[in-house]
Amino acid sequence: MLLDATIKAQLAQYLEMMESDILLKVSAGSDKISREMLALVDELATMSYNIKVEHTQLERTPSFSVNRIGEDTGINFAGIPLGHEFTSLVLALLQVSGRAPKVDQKVIDQVKNIKDAYHFESYISLSCQNCPEVVQALNVMSVLNPNITHTMIDGAAYKEEVESKNILAVPTVFLNGETFGSGRMTVEEILAKLGSAPDASEFADKEPFDVLVIGGGPAGSSAAIYAARKGIRTGIVAERFGGQILDTASIENFISVKHTEGPKLAASLEEHVKEYNVDVMNLQRAKRLEKKDLIEIELENGAILKSKTVILSTGARWRNIDVPGEAEFRNKGVAYCPHCDGPLFTGKHVAVIGGGNSGVEAAIDLAGIVKHVTVLEYSSELKADSVLQDRLYSLPNVTVLKSVQTKEITGTDNVKGITYMELDSETEQHIELSGVFIQIGLVPSTDWLGDTVERNRAGEIVIDNRGATNIPGVFAAGDCTTNPYKQIIISMGSGATAALGAFDYLVRN
Ligand code: FAD
């Protein structure tokens, strides 16, 4: 039995929601993964009369496809979709049976209108938290359009294929045999990459806003909701709705919610914002701010949005170390997400750069998967909490190097080593290894503001206790500001403050 009693009970409830019969076509051999996959498929079939099974030969063995009776949908799972992919399997079963996917009608129409034949392959790991979003998005596209097929491939089950394609980051997506992209992707993002992103003309007729929020993380979502609840015209522009929490595995300090996962909280934020009359402009990046009579925000696509007030909540992103090799080998051994990409380095030697909480947590996680972890820290002491340091030092396959400066990440097609300087002796050293995880903190996403809005030396927007910046009508909130302590609940609070500050400003001006 692959599924435990709790999962089976949950699954039974979902399977009751199936709307018609479906056919699982199974391609299995005599290997261990094939046997486990067959056990899973048989277990599913015994749990629902709607699930039929046929044994056949598919492109990959072991794999199975999820089909309507008499019509292949193009959804394939190569490997066993358990772990983080279990939800992808359940959704595929339900959607192929006829349950409508939770996607905006506009997006459904865009997918249905695709005329070209697209065959997607997504390489994932079952411990990757970012992977299910891509798998589910591509499955939805396959369900909606017969020209689109998608195969999820578990890297652990297809090691040789992953190595031959030199895949060192998950999720990595191929389209018709060519690299398409890596990292999280929603249906809207995939459509945009396929060339159906809205251009500037779609924004041309927008009336000026009362409050325009830039950034769709916890701070921006909170600001938008507080503004919209005042009944004023509110818009929100987000490069990626959700922000940093999309990369957060487990959240246990969001008060009143004992435990949640980042992507789940991001989905709730978006749902809450959409409850209100807020013009949500997702997948749009702001590139310029100018104060005229109104405040103007120019987007990357050239559109100009106008508003009486603006709330900047563009948060923060991973800091780069800016050494030769970092950009060149990104996704080819240079990684930022240990949860996602760690399993691709099973049995190998990796380095973690950074000895703060995130670096040491990453090293502890990786030590359970890889052969050896070397932690490189610039200071003479690690900065992580002592409980984490104790755990790290107790591990047999970890080396900690302090007072060292990374000089270069070396390699040919992918990472082969790291060169660093011992600061005390000023001698250069080199270690041969296969992966480098960079964990040196975050930097505020405020460069795009040029010399308009006042910032401190760290690049944080300077605000007062009502969220106001030096420019009248421009407010800011969250991790991109001087507000101390970068946390979800604090960002949400400062988003609320900035929205109320903007409302007061509108009343007075
Ligand atoms: P962000 O979440 O960074 O959101 C910024 C938004 O602005 C995004 O939508 C982004 O796409 C958008 N944006 C950026 N630039 C532009 C632009 N030019 N135009 C348009 N949009 C733009 N906090 C906790 O409280 N608990 C935790 O357990 C926790 N764990 C964490 C784990 C990790 C790995 C990380 C990285 C952070 C964690 N945090 C945690 C911190 C928390 O996630 C942040 O404090 C919070 O997300 C900040 O919210 P924000 O809205 O200010 O910014």
User: What percent of residues are in strands?
Assistant: 25-35%
Going across the biggest sheet, name each strand in turn.
2-1-3-4-6-5-7-8
Q: Give a count of the beta strands, DSSP E runs of length 2 or more.
A: 25
> How much helical structure, as a percent, in the residues?
25-40%
Question: Which CATH C-level class of the largest domain is it?
Answer: Alpha Beta
Global outline: globular
How large is the radius of gyration?
Answer: 24 Å
Domain module tally: 3
First and last CA, distance: 67 Å
Oligomeric state as shown: single chain
**Shape-level CATH architecture of the largest domain:** 3-Layer(aba) Sandwich
- Alpha-beta classification: alpha/beta
Descriptive notes:
The protein has 509 residues and is of the alpha/beta class. It folds into 3 domains: 192 residues, Glutaredoxin, CATH 3.40.30.80; 184 residues, FAD/NAD(P)-binding domain; 105 residues, FAD/NAD(P)-binding domain. The chain has 13 helices and 25 strands. The chain has an 8-stranded mixed beta sheet, covered by helices on one side. Strands 9, 10, 11, 12, 13, 14 and 25 form a 7-stranded mixed beta sheet that branches. A 5-stranded parallel beta sheet has the order 16-23-17-18-19, with helices on one face. A hairpin with a 2-residue loop joins strand 3 and strand 4. The longest helix has 21 residues. Flavin-adenine dinucleotide binds next to helix 8, strand 10 and helix 13.
Brief summary of the model shown:
With 509 residues, this protein is an alpha/beta fold.
